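Subject: Predicted fold for FAD-binding PCMH-type domain-containing protein, 171 residues

User T.R. writes:
Posting the sequence so we have a shared reference for the thread.
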Amino acid sequence: MSSFHWEENISLQYYNTFKIQVIARYVVRIQNKSLDKLIKSPLFQTHVILGGGSNLLFVEKSYDGVFLKNKILGIEPISRAHTHTSLKVGGGVTWGSLVDYCLTHNLGGIENLSFIPGTVGAAPIQNIGAYGVELSDVLESVEIVDLMDGKTRTMTRAECQSGLPMLLTID
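User M.O. replies:
I've generated the structure tokens; pasting them so everyone works from the same file.
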């Protein structure tokens, strides 16, 4: 399966919470972390990463660039201990879906972060928080793809404090 899928002249009305009608020249749905061909494309020069669209307000009727829509999905337990469970979560998972998963599996810690819009991939950049709980309280690491060179690496919680604008998969 290809790691991404190009679409041309796409309405972003359903990709932003204000439902503003704007046409994107390209929308690329990212399905895994192999992005070498995408990054090398001459069309990739101007790009915006699109999460849940709750922090977007369009003022133009069109955008002559590339919107990257993170569609890397999945929630997988990677370790379990008496005091905590570590999850690997795809950056395209909606934040609400992650909270629901944790509640369904009796995994406490992020329930105060219910109803926060957006995706898991955007959460470290925003360091989402509510009612005395912040993502940084439970974040272990973030696996990123550097959109300059296509290389994947893992950032620690401390390294995430800089909020680099990259495609994210939380571990």
